Amino acid sequence: MTKHLRIGLLGAGPWAAMTQAPALSGHPDVVLGGVWGRRPEAAAALADAHGTTAFTGEDGIDALFASNDAIAFAVPPDVQAPLAVRAAAAGCHLLLDKPVATTVAAARDAAKAAEEAKVASVVFCTLRFATDTARWIGEQAATGGWFTAHAQWLGALFSPGAESPFAASPWRREKGGLWDVGPHALSALLPVLGDVVEVTAAHGPSDTMHLVLRHTSGASSTATLGLGAPMNAAGVSLVLVGERGRTELPDGWGNPVESFRTAVNELIGVIRTGRSHPCDVRFGLRITEILAEAEQKAAGTAR
């Protein structure tokens, strides 16, 4: 790898404009090697804002892959997964967004493609790269002795009067909070409590989903996930209770641009060392497997 890693950006929507594009274009060791978007005008505007080239259409995807060392993804999960397969086959390292996919088959294909192509991968689960939350997760994993955990991730994207640019996202409307904020909860719970060995799930109001999880450590956890909470009910908390008492996830997730730059740094480290990252595409696959099982269990209880 040369001193400057060329990273192309796949996606030109709000998240790409707010986070990936400024993080990549401002990174001292990275060249933003182009932006691809389904809408030519959005791709052109974002590329122009960051002094790079716009790519559009099917041919544009292949051209983006051919001209870059790695690809950062800011597209819906079930668009992301098959494009990750193509990117890996083209020899590009992968900087994926969460969730990797919303079907186990698609996530498995992406993980298999990365393994076969021997490309590095990092999944941008924000809590794992924001300074305060990443430190807290590491400290709690090292401490151990946790008896149970209680997570609540409630957004108000679908609430009347909400003004989030992500509220109109078709995949979020279809899949709900389980798939949008569920990866955040699991990205913090799994490294602390261990893998999930049993899942129970049930629907709540709006798109809310309640999960009960049993972990390899013997601990249990609960997670309440949703995007349709009332404005005054929205909020995030994660509490661990164990041998040393009680601890809670720090407030605030930091600046997402800085967190994404940290993810870029860690991808660079993986490329240089050849070591896998704890938040790689295989971890993304495991999150998809757990959420898919929860979705299936909740569908069974609803009948």
Topology:
Elements: E1 5-10, H1 14-25, E2 30-36, H2 40-49, E3 54-55, H3 57-66, E4 70-73, H4 77-89, E5 93-97, H5 104-117, E6 121-124, H6 131-143, E7 146-154, H7 170-180, H8 182-193, E8 196-203, E9 209-215, E10 220-226, E11 235-242, E12 245-248, H9 256-273, H10 281-302
Number of helical stretches of at least 4 residues: 10
Helix and strand succession?
EHEHEHEHEHEHEHHEEEEEHH
Specify Rg, calculated over alpha carbons.
19 Å
Domain module count: 2
The CATH superfamily of the largest domain is identified as NAD(P)-binding Rossmann-like Domain
Helix-strand makeup class: alpha/beta
Q: How much of the residues is beta strand, in percent?
A: 15-25%
The coarse silhouette is globular
CATH topology of the largest domain, what is it called?
Rossmann fold
Average of pLDDT: 95
What features would you describe in this structure?
The protein is of the alpha/beta class. The chain folds into two domains: 5-126 and 256-279, Rossmann fold; 131-252, Dihydrodipicolinate Reductase, domain 2 (2-Layer Sandwich), CATH 3.30.360.10. Helix content is 45%, strand content 23%. It contains ten helices and twelve strands. The strands form two sheets. The chain has a six-stranded parallel sheet with strand order 3-2-1-4-5-6, with helices on both faces. It has a six-stranded mixed sheet with strand order 8-9-10-7-11-12. Helix 1 links the parallel strand 1 and strand 2 (30-36). Helix 4 (77-89) runs parallel beside helix 5. It is globular.
